[in-house]
Amino acid sequence: MPASSNTLASIDTPAAIVSLPQMRHNIQRMQDQANALGVRFRPHVKTTKCAQVVQAQGAAGAQGVTVSTLKEAEQFFAQGVQDILYAVGMVPQRLPQVMALRRQGCKLAIITDNAVVAQAIADFGRQHGEAFEVLIEIDTDGHRSGIKPDEDALLQVGQILHQGGMQLAGLLTHAGSSYELHTPEALAALAEQERAGCVYAAERLRAVGLPCTVVSVGSTPTALEAKNLEGVTELRAGVYVFFDLVMHNVGVCTTDEIALTVLTTVIGHQADKGWAIVDAGWMAMSRDRGTAKQQQDFGYGQVCTLDGTPLPGFLMGSANQEQGIISRSTGAPDADIATRLPVGTRLRILPNHACATGAQFPEYQALDEDGTLQTWGRFHGW
Fold it and tell me: SS3 sequence, 129-146?
């Protein structure tokens, strides 16, 4: 899409701004990491849900995509992406939708972590002559879903799928507990735990004659800090493309690498409280306060100048639906805030969680180095 005549000084606010130099840097950084580790890279597109971003990831070397909703699968398949992994536990009610996509030519894989659903997949597949491609989800860190690598259920699920005529493609895991860490050493250790657990599960499947071609691991922190992925075939990550303040606190990016900001305008003041009021509230930033549990709490976001330079000591400390409150991070009133940030001042706010903030907007304003903007659509819904 050609650049518009709009600029950061002229577009309406609030707006979601994607800084293209940072985005391109982040894409290349992760692709270089996957290449160095000798694995294919499959980005998780739930962060951006944006065709232009996925095109940039593919141009850098990514192969296929990971999605969190079947609507994402439909939308990206319509955009020409054929190799898609739906990385949310399958429920039988969605199998007709999966089958419809596969019969249109989409190479759509699904996941499960239990025998009940595995049997439902096999039964539905046999009934309709469809050999679904299925990965078994492995729990390598106790974070969320999955079968532990040494559980008997792993072989049970594998046998149900394989003997039921499905394509048992392999295994998948996600070390989501990496978001709770904040040192390179801890992240590297978890990355090795993630790798070793998934590889061990693969060896167990193969030992009893079950196929296991794909061994897929990844979260943004473990992907970036992994030192060795022997036995792994595929790396996945999502939020890396934009990064955010949670990832900054985890220690895998600087604030200079955060590609997503929310553009907002100062609309008033409470001088006695040292507040500047802006037109971006939690409907723009989201209610995600992920940094509140980390070593540095950024409130609803870090305040930056119009050019993206952080303003030290200023945060969006609180927010209502359509209004945010800019204040000193110390809580001490700033008597000069009305002079420092007069009505009409445009600011950019770094978000806590790029996935949540991006989801608040129907489109992005993609900002290039020369200051030009392009409007990029974003998929919504389920």
Answer: CCCCEEEEEECCCCCCCC
> 339-353 as b/e, with b when 16 or more CB fall inside 10 Å?
eebeeebbbbbbbbb
pLDDT in tens, 114-165: 999 999 999 999 999 999 999 999 999 988 899 999 999 999 999 999 999 9
Tokens (6 digits) for 350: 């770094």
Whole-angstrom distance, CA of residue 340 vs CA of residue 323 = 19
Its pTM surpasses 0.70: yes
Query: Given the DSSP bridges, would you call strands 167-173 and 133-138 parallel, antiparallel or unpaired?
Result: parallel
- Number of Cβ within 10 Å of residue 71's Cβ equals 15
Alpha helices in 164-272 (DSSP H): 184-207, 220-225, 245-250
Please report the domains of the chain, with CATH numbers, ordered by start residue: 21-241 (3.20.20.10), 255-377 (2.40.37.20)
Length of the chain: 382
